[in-house]
Structure formats: structure tokens, C-alpha cells
Amino acid sequence: MTDLFSKKIAGIAPYTAGEQPSDRSYVKLNTNENPYPPSPKALEAYRSFDFGSLRLYPSLDMRALKEAIAKAEGVSPENVFCGNGSDEVLSFCFPAFFDPEEPVRFPAVTYSFYRVYAKLFGIPYEEVPMLPGFAVDVQGMTAGRGGAILPNPNAPTSLELPLAVIEDMARAQREKGRVLVVDEAYVAFGQEPSAATLVPRYDNLLVTRTLSKDHALAGLRVGYALGQRGLIEGLLRVKDSFNSYPVDSLAIAAAAAALQDEDYFRLRRDQVVRTRDFFRQGLLERGFAVLPSSANFVFARPGFCPGRELFAALRRRNVLVRRWDAPGIEEYLRISIGTQEEME
Asked: Which pLDDT score is estimated for 1?
């Protein structure tokens, strides 16, 4: 039936998510999920929810969720945009801030959804080659005429740029009147402060976040963006052209409760970081090349066999990790951090 597709859709290769099998039990280390349960406060908000209210549309302004986010991030609720996972928020950025006349830039090794969004919305793009060691070419990212987008920490490399470098990029983009989008899906696991601290000073900086990784709510689908009112207005225009009610009432209640449980968040985040550092050291001792990690995963290359072989061998032993055939990273595995017992 592909002959009935539009020309645009027929020419797009959709994003391929990590395998989500149901045929048997796996040690699942392929989609960067949190290995621990969500906050007890989030679970209690779910259990005590008025399910009879589901006959009504959710809150249009999502005020309770925006206020919880604003308090956690140190911004005003008017600086918050909420969406159905950060992937949806990121997708809105392309028609909101990037033009078909100017290529958007992102690193050559990065989150592959950016390419899909660019093609879907008809935005030309330039993949900025990586520097040695998979470092982001900061000058190259801001050398073009158009906007720029990147994850920090980057995925799948797990490397993190200092906040001062992100500010330099925001300043360079502002000088030419273009937007910088910083995708902070993994920022909680790194050493650098969030770029949200720069939002009051840069009207061209948008920071996206997700509750999937650090708050263990991947199944709930809540993401958000932080920016000055002009950028938030741009996202609202796109959202209201698709769906005015993207975040459901249950998600609003549970996500707001999770954000208010700072102690639990820190406890589980610190567990993941300790296990990550333990695991990375163990791989190094066993002959792997492993990049320094500021995320809840490691990017590692075995020194004793091809990456493809190890990927397949792990799967035969019911351990799922992630691998790509893309040039330059085909020998690497991205391995999510599970519980201490799983990583041992």
C-alpha cells in the first residue's frame, strides 16, 4: 500500500527504537530506562486519582505540572512547555524554530531522531563531523546560518559539554538571530548544571527535558521545555496546530508528584551513577575501550571481538544492549545501566 503514501512519507526512514521484546525475560539494557521504580509519591498520586474525571479533557494549561516543573528548575511557569514525552517536544522545535531555507545543524553522531524530524518537516540539515574521541565540534555547530540542536550529554556517546561551552554556543547563535536547542534527557546523571540556568539570559535558548530517565516514568510519557516566553509561544503555536491536549490527566498528576519528591530522585540517581562508574571500571579492566560517561549508559568497544559478535552473544544470553551499523560507531555498544546486580 506504499503507493498511497505521500511523496514525503514514502521517502522517510522512520526512527528505529530499541528492541522491546515480549517473548521471554531479558536483562534489558538497550533503551536507557531507569532500573528502579518511580517515586512512591507518583504511585500514590496515581492510586488516589479520580478516575471518574477521565470523561473530561485534561487541564488545557497543565498548571499543576508546570508549577511543579518551574519549582524544580527555578523558573517561572510561563517559561515551561509540556508535551507527550520530550520526543514530541523536540519534534515541535523543527517547525517552530528551523526554516527550510537554512540548514539546521547537529552532530554527526547523535540522537538519530533529529534526522527523521528534519526530513518530516522539510528542514535541510548539516551533520557536523565529530572531533577525535567523539567530541562535539562546538565551532562547527554554530558556523552555519540556521539553528542548531544537540543533546548534552550527547547520545549515544555519553559525553558532556561544560555549561560554559553551551553558553558560548547560545551567544553565538543569538548574534545571528537563531535558536539553540539543548536536549537534556540525561543531564541529571552528569556533573554539569542544567542549561536551564542560562534561560533568563538568552531568549534564543530552549532546553528540553524528560521524566523518562531520571524519574523512571518512561511509560507515562511526559517531557517539557524551558525557555523565554517567545520560544514557549512558538511551541504552543505548533502544539495547538496538532493537539491542544497532549498530556493526559493521569500523567499530569503523577508527574507533578514525582517532581516534588526530590529526596527519592536524588537517592535513585545516585544509585545509577555509582553503578555506572563501577560498571565502566569493570569494562576497562576487561579490555574494553569505554568513553567517560555523564549519562545513565556507557558507550563501549570490546577489545577482543567485533561489536556485532558481542551484541549477538549477549542477546543469546538474554542480555539486550544497543548497537548501530553507522560508520565510525559500528564496533561500539551502548549499554544502559541497570541495577547493581544486573551490571555485576
From this structure: 60
